[in-house]
Amino acid sequence: MFVTVQSQTPPLISSVEAIEITVADMDRAVAFYSQVLGFTTMSDTEVAGESYEQLEGVFGVRMRVVQMRLGDEFILLTEYLAPKGRPIPAGARSNDKSSQHIAIIVSDMDKAYRWLRQNKVVHASSGPQTLPAWNTNTGGISAFYFKDPDGHPVEILHFPPDKGADKWHRPSDKLFLGIDHTAIVVSDTDASLRSYRNLLGMDVAGQSENYGPEQERLSNVFGAHIRITALRASEGPGIELLEYIAPGDGRPFPGDEHANDMIHRQTRLVTKSADRAARNLFSAKVSFVSSGVIANQKRELGYGSAFIVRDPDGHAIEIEQK
After folding, report:
1. What sign has the CA pseudo-torsion 268, 271, 273, 277?
2. Helix, strand, coil shares of the chain as percentages rounded to 5?
3. What angle do CA 95, 111, 262 make, to 5 degrees?
4. 144 by DSSP, 3-state: which?
5. Which of 126, 128, 121 is nearest to 106 (CA)?
6. d(Cα 200, Cα 187) in Å, to the nearest integer?
7. For residue range 244-288, what is the model confidence (pLDDT) as tens digits?
8. Distance CA 235, CA 214 (A)
9. How far apart (Å, rounded) are the C-alpha atoms in residues 283 and 242?
10. Contact yes or no for 12/201 (Cβ under 8 A)
11. Other CB atoms closer than 10 Å to residue 8's CB: what's the count?
12. pLDDT tens across 115-140, in order?
């Protein structure tokens, strides 16, 4: 857990690099993200050994990691060849504290939805929803949730002309443009802000309260009333905090979750000094997954040193130094 500390200057975090997703079958996952969603494979690496065991907190680990790109943003798909983890629990819902998804921007919502239907994706929403005009901050945004082959929720999102970054409004012949943010469900926005904003140094980019039938059908949660806080680092996709004001029956983050479980996602953040970041986080009584700062002299996965911690609700954050 994080405790309150004063903001750091300069911020501990310089960018959000990627969102890592644990998958059961890499070939199946790569086919889905490339053939259905338009991602491009950038690298395909198999790693094992003590440094990865210490980093991930999983003994006897052997991982296949595939980096994929969409627009300017990246995901990392990780298959644990050994040891195998558990599937996503039955009955998982959007308001569970373990819920996390990426939001992919599309150039045309109707075309994107038809394409997903042709590819027989599993619905998480009843269909695309356009948020009402009375909500100044989100009115006119349309979105749809579905699931990847492992059951991870994925969102497609379309911004009206007056919302979203300029990059999402540039002319493009592509249907899937890039990743705007990753959204995580939190139990207490203020507690999460003390970690992501005050401690890590991310900036609040926007806030909203969403409710009503459109939001209920989007989340597939009856009575959904969500406090939304958008955070940004200087580079990369954002992190969006979703606090379900109602209903309050979402399941807590499983205390025995490990990186090889299918429910696992972790957000990769870049720092200029892993040692400094680790000292500050340790002083703030953060829960560490890793045994400390783990050096990676071979740089097989693109970083020189890294460590993993958990936010106040249990979401994994990997902090790496290039």
Report:
1. negative
2. 20, 35, 45
3. 35
4. strand
5. 128
6. 19
7. 999 999 999 999 999 999 999 999 999 999 999 999 999 999 999
8. 31
9. 27
10. yes
11. 15
12. 999 999 999 999 999 999 999 999 99
User: Token digits for 302?
Assistant: 């693109």
pLDDT tens track for 104-117: 999 999 999 999 99
What is the rounded distance in angstroms from the CA atom of residue 120 to the CA atom of residue 175? 17
End-to-end CA distance of the chain: 26
- How far is the C-alpha of 322 from the C-alpha of 308, rounded, in Å? 15
User: Cα(260)–Cα(57) distance, rounded to whole angstroms?
Assistant: 10
| Residue for token pair 């009503």 | 212
> Using an 8 Å Cβ cutoff, are 275 and 293 in contact?
yes
What's the one-letter identity of residue 4? T
Q: What are phi and psi of 118, to 5 degrees?
A: -60, -30
Residues 12, 17, 23, CA angle at the centre, nearest 5°?
A: 125
How far apart CA 51 and CA 295 sit, in angstroms, is: 7
| CA distances for 114 relative to 111, 128, 230, 249, 287, angstroms | 5, 10, 29, 33, 43
Tokens encoding 42: 């950038």
- Classify residue 288 as exposed, middle or buried by CB count within 10 Å of its CB (0-12, 13-18, 19+): middle
Domains, the chain, in order of start with CATH, read 15-86+262-321 (3.10.180.10), 100-246 (3.10.180.10)
Q: Are 150 and 23 in contact (CB under 8 A)?
A: yes
212 CB neighbour count, 10 Å cutoff: 15
Amino acid at 137: N
Letter for the amino acid at 201? G
